[in-house]
Write a structure and sequence with these properties.
Distance between the termini: 82 Å
Shape: globular
Largest sheet: 6 strands, mixed
Structural class: alpha+beta
Strand order of the largest sheet: 1-13-12-9-10-11
Helix content: 40-55%
Radius of gyration: 34 Å
Number of helices: 16
Order of helices and strands: EEHHHHHHHEEEEHEEHEEEHEHHHEHHH
Length: 544
């Protein structure tokens, strides 16, 4: 027990802070030309502002942003300038967070390699003493020592950039920029790459303003679906409506959360819009987003008042089991499969479909909470932790923990279902040890993942995973009552079903003794053992 780590307390996951919905814009050729020209022009302004923001580094303050916004206002408008400066600062902050994560990852890898290099070759790990295992071969030890110097050199560079506030950002994406040098391998022509590069670098996003008409003055969508765009000053000649505005022929209809969006714009509450182009499909889209009011987190006891559905997340399916308020599994286990071996759109659709079926099952069960594991595999994908087990490392790498959790939290927000996060330690092992065999029947096979879902649910409810059993009654009379007395803490194997040791007290004979008895007892013609027949001495013969 001394080697087991301390378990973290379960908690209710807070709901999402914002909402985003998307709809397709069926624009005409004229509308597409105007949107492209405006997006490319504003994208060039955003690129220059991002370069200026990166040069400021840690010296950025409100005064610096005001200077940048004032310079962009003369080239576009005050609202476009505000949206551009805010977007570039958010992009710089995102790159800064990524730099901090990269810095932490490098330090962790260096510490792991140094700990293993200090151990003798072939040495086994000792968790009690906190010692890592040594490398198996001398060649591997030498290769890791060289990699250690490489990582230290990278760490010096990243630490210098972090101290100076210098980040490396590519508008349009680093991967797409590197694809320019590998067009044949990517299966793209130069024109196709140019279209994708231009679409990624366009800027057509405007923040909302509460109190303004329909919640946004720059990109305005009315309750009837009419979309109008405030043109920058240099492109005012493209306007087809008064006050330098352009009205698109396409109409917008947000089918998902459309009523919520309509309520916001009717009340003139802030709604942010972003228009983007997909050159692969040749389609235009508009995305509306807004912030949600902060909802108090439901107490853990109230969320678990009607039981819970424990969920064990795997790389190809979700294993779920409904548990009542006492921690007892109810009904049969459920498995919701998905396939993550195709494109990103296919993977997202598979995850959404599996989570939808999970929510339907939770509502049918009558539970008001779903228990999931608070998983984070960021430190488990390295070779230093799992050695040469490439198959397991690939399994961990493609495990969609972040997507599953984020999508589940956003989907349950409208279903009045709480998400309870539990510590994932020992759920699979203890679940298989204590629940897999007792729940298996000839007609139902219980997998290790099904048993782990019970462990997750019991931990969320505050019960131990182990199945406590009551001791046997002293005698068979009715005065014994119901067997509710638990075993004392000093009793051995009190967490398991009580064994039946052989002996006269338990009237139990070992199987090997029973087999020996059956084979050693001679049988009569009638089939009964001679030892079981009454013995009588024959009378002496009176004569020979």
């Amino acid at each position: 027990m001394g080697r087991l780590r301390e378990l973290a307390a379960s908690f209710v996951v807070p709901g999402p802070a914002g909402v985003a919905v998307r709809d397709r814009l069926r624009v005409s050729d004229a509308d597409a030309a105007v949107l492209t020209e405006v997006g490319v022009f504003l994208g060039s302004l955003a690129s220059g502002d991002l370069a200026e923001r990166s040069r400021q580094g840690l010296a950025h303050d409100a005064t610096g942003r005001a200077v940048r916004k004032r310079a962009l206002t003369g080239k576009s408008s005050a609202r476009w300038a505000g949206s551009i400066t805010k977007a570039t600062h958010d992009q710089w902050a995102l790159a800064r967070r990524g730099q901090a994560a990269h810095l932490s990852r490098l330090r962790g890898q260096i510490a792991s390699i140094e700990a293993r290099l200090a151990r003798p070759l072939g040495a086994k790990a000792d968790r009690g003493a906190g010692l890592a295992r040594g490398y198996a071969l001398r060649g591997e030890w030498h290769a890791k020592s060289r990699r250690l110097h490489t990582l230290k050199d990278r760490l010096v560079v990243v630490e210098a950039d972090w101290a100076a506030g210098r980040v490396h950002v590519v508008r349009g994406g680093k991967r797409l920029a590197n694809t320019r040098h590998q067009l044949t391998a990517a299966g793209l022509s130069e024109q196709q790459w140019r279209q994708r590069w231009q679409a990624e670098r366009m800027f057509l996003a405007a923040d909302g303003e509460s109190g303004k008409r329909f919640g946004n003055e720059t990109i305005r969508i009315t309750d009837t679906g009419k979309l109008t765009l405030k043109l920058p000053a240099p492109l005012a000649h493209l306007a087809n409506a008064p006050h330098g505005r352009y009205v698109l022929d396409a109409t917008v209809r947000f089918r998902h959360r459309g009523q919520e969006w309509r309520d916001r714009i009717t009340a003139n509450r802030a709604v942010a819009y972003r228009i983007h182009h997909d050159p692969v499909r040749g389609r235009w889209y508009v995305t509306a987003s807004w912030q949600r009011a902060a909802v108090p987190v439901l107490p853990l006891e109230a969320a678990l008042a009607r039981g819970v559905v424990g969920v064990d997340m795997n790389d190809d399916h979700l294993a779920a089991w409904h548990l009542d308020v006492h921690g007892n599994p109810v009904g049969a286990p459920q498995r919701f499969f998905y396939d993550l071996t195709n494109s990103a759109e296919h993977r997202d659709a598979q995850i959404r479909h599996a989570l939808s079926r999970l929510l339907h099952h939770t509502r049918r069960c009558g539970a008001a909470a779903i228990a999931i594991e608070d998983l984070d595999f960021t430190d488990s994908t390295s070779r230093e932790k799992h050695g040469r087990n490439k198959r397991f490392r690939r399994l961990i790498s493609r495990f969609p923990t972040a997507k599953l959790t984020a999508r589940l939290v956003s989907m349950v927000a409208e279903q009045d279902i709480a998400i309870v996060a539990v510590d994932p330690a020992y759920t699979s092992g203890w679940g298989a040890q204590h629940w897999q065999k007792p729940l298996a029947t000839p007609a139902r096979t219980i997998s290790r993942h099904d048993a782990a879902s019970i462990a997750v649910g019991r931990r969320a409810l505050g019960y131990p995973i182990r199945r406590r059993t009551t001791p046997l009654p002293a005698h068979q009379s009715d005065v014994q009552g119901h067997r509710t007395v638990q075993a004392r803490p000093e009793a051995r194997r009190r967490e398991e079903t009580r064994p039946h040791p052989p002996g006269p007290r338990t009237r139990c004979v070992p199987p090997e003794v029973e087999r020996k008895r059956e084979t050693s007892l001679p049988k009569t013609v009638r089939g009964s053992a001679t030892e079981q027949q009454s013995w009588q001495q024959d009378s002496l013969p009176l004569s020979v």
